[in-house]
Amino acid sequence: AGRLMKEVQVSEARAFYGFQIAIENIRSEMYSLLLETYIKDSEEKNRLFHAMETVPCVAKKAQWALRWIDGSESCAERLVAFACVEGIFFSGSFCAIFWLKKRGLMPGLTFSNELISRDEGLHCDFACLLYSLLRKKLSEERVKGIVKDAVDIEREFVVDALPCALVGMNGELMSQYIEFVADRLLGALGCGKVYYVANPFDGMELISLQGKTNFFEKRVGEY
């Protein structure tokens, strides 16, 4: 977001990226607090705090994102890449956390990630909107190449993070969900589908849709 904020000259877009950076800082603090809460073993906690260096599948995602920040690619390519970061790189994690939510487990973790998933959806939508305003867009082949690259990395992450099948959740279904999300992102970028798969998880559409909560019953995740 920082580099795009420097490149984009539209005042409203620069303001949006300022808010996005602030939101990402808050999210980083939230994840740190969750690690402090759930992980009691100091060695494991330290390993997860430095996941970009200690967990290969996380490092691969980080390196892919940094490549677009530091590289010489066009602004259009960076917008598509960061739409993938916001829209694809978190889809597997959010899907697993939604599985916990449906079973009433770890309410603090699931509620905080419900809020984050909405932010990520907004950031992804904004990247797609800004891309749609560009006069010089990428070829459909190039857009699909970037998206497929992101899908491959996220699938690898899911297989590593979820080695054991759970009730209603396994690596194969998660991979299909990632492909479903990727096709939806391609549509938002004005391209055709690549994977042509259905959403394997009933209710997962709810992550990106407006919800309604009785304000007197619980703290809300809709805003």
TrEMBL record:
<dbReference type="Pfam" id="PF00268">
    <property type="entry name" value="Ribonuc_red_sm"/>
</dbReference>
<keyword id="KW-0472">Membrane</keyword>
<feature type="transmembrane region" description="Helical">
    <location>
        <begin position="79"/>
        <end position="100"/>
    </location>
</feature>
<protein>
    <submittedName>
        <fullName>Ribonucleotide reductase beta subunit</fullName>
    </submittedName>
</protein>
<dbReference type="GO" id="GO:0009263">
    <property type="term" value="P:deoxyribonucleotide biosynthetic process"/>
</dbReference>
<dbReference type="InterPro" id="IPR000358">
    <property type="entry name" value="RNR_small_fam"/>
</dbReference>
<dbReference type="GO" id="GO:0016491">
    <property type="term" value="F:oxidoreductase activity"/>
</dbReference>
<dbReference type="InterPro" id="IPR012348">
    <property type="entry name" value="RNR-like"/>
</dbReference>
<comment type="similarity">
    <text>Belongs to the ribonucleoside diphosphate reductase small chain family.</text>
</comment>
<dbReference type="InterPro" id="IPR009078">
    <property type="entry name" value="Ferritin-like_SF"/>
</dbReference>
<keyword id="KW-1133">Transmembrane helix</keyword>
<keyword id="KW-0812">Transmembrane</keyword>
<dbReference type="InterPro" id="IPR033909">
    <property type="entry name" value="RNR_small"/>
</dbReference>
